[in-house]
Design brief:
Number of strands: 7
Number of domains: 1
CATH architecture: 2-Layer Sandwich
Distance between the termini: 53 Å
Strand content: 15-25%
CATH topology: Nucleotidyltransferase, domain 5
CATH class: Alpha Beta
Radius of gyration: 19 Å
């Protein structure tokens, strides 16, 4: 049997939005405070071509931005250069930079899947105990629940996010995912060992790609803006709108190439 390539056993996870529900004095701020998102999105990329080649190309593109006279003096770029070195980050990047990187992503052989968690107070309080880390773990478990039949060791390269990506919380996500797998496929055995490689996004260029695709999906849910999603839609195999209970029948809250996201997926404030 021909050994599977290294990238078969790696995934790269990043997010878009935030997990904030409360302001000072535990005042609800979702939907009425600028800069606080209506949802939190956790996405995962699987590459189908050599990772080192992609990593080197991302670094090359980042260096092009840094050395391009056109971008000299841009505050968001200069700040990163001083702090940790420039890296692609969709929220901060200029439109011209986004176009450049999205066009590169479109050339890659990859697949992406994401879970969207609407920020619903009743769910956050009753299901997640008003705990942002539990909210994160719940979303992550849904990304992992169908990965237990891959076999071997699956390495999840995941962007660091405070308490949410501490070992204890990641183990909770795995355990929850296993329970869901056993519930869905009680006769199947778990053949995959899932391990986490928590990384600072500034140190792993491949996380930038997951960040950008998450951002494209977020624009649909936050603004009803589909241009970025449509541009790279062929790379997006699955998006689960996890808490959209109105579409649970027949898994209508599962979006793929046949059931695509549209401007109608734009969320309304709670």
């Amino acid at each position: 049997m021909t050994p599977r390539p290294k990238e078969f056993y790696h995934r790269f996870l990043d997010e878009a939005g935030d997990t904030t529900f409360w302001g000072k004095g535990k005042i609800p701020i979702v939907g009425n405070t600028q800069g606080v998102s209506l949802s939190f999105i956790l996405g995962m990329v699987k590459f189908k071509q050599p990772m080192n080649h992609i990593r080197n190309k991302v670094i090359e593109l980042q260096n092009e931005i840094v050395n391009d006279e056109y971008y000299k003096g841009v505050p968001s770029i200069e700040k990163k250069k001083r702090k940790s070195g420039y890296f692609f980050h969709a929220t901060d990047d200029l439109p011209e930079v986004r176009e450049k990187f999205f066009r590169y992503i479109k050339t890659l052989d990859l697949s992406f899947e994401a879970v969207v968690g609407r920020k619903i107070y009743n769910i956050f309080i009753n299901k997640h105990n008003s705990n942002e880390a539990e909210f994160y773990a719940d979303l992550l478990s849904h990304l992992l629940k169908n990965k237990f039949e891959i076999g071997g060791k699956l390495i999840l390269n995941i962007a660091e996010r405070g308490k949410s990506t501490k070992n204890h919380n990641l183990e909770i996500a795995i355990n929850t995912a296993q329970k869901r797998f056993n519930s869905i496929k009680p006769d199947k055995e778990i053949s995959t060992q899932i391990v986490f490689n928590v990384q600072n996004p500034t140190k792993e260029p491949l996380l930038c790609i997951s960040d950008y695709i998450c951002w494209a999906v977020q624009r649909v849910f936050e603004r009803g803006e589909t241009r970025y999603y449509n541009f790279i839609e062929e790379k997006i195999s699955l998006v689960i709108d996890l808490y959209d209970s109105y579409k649970y029948d027949n898994n209508q809250n599962y979006y793929n190439h046949r059931n695509k996201l549209t401007a109608e997926n734009k969320l309304s404030p709670p």
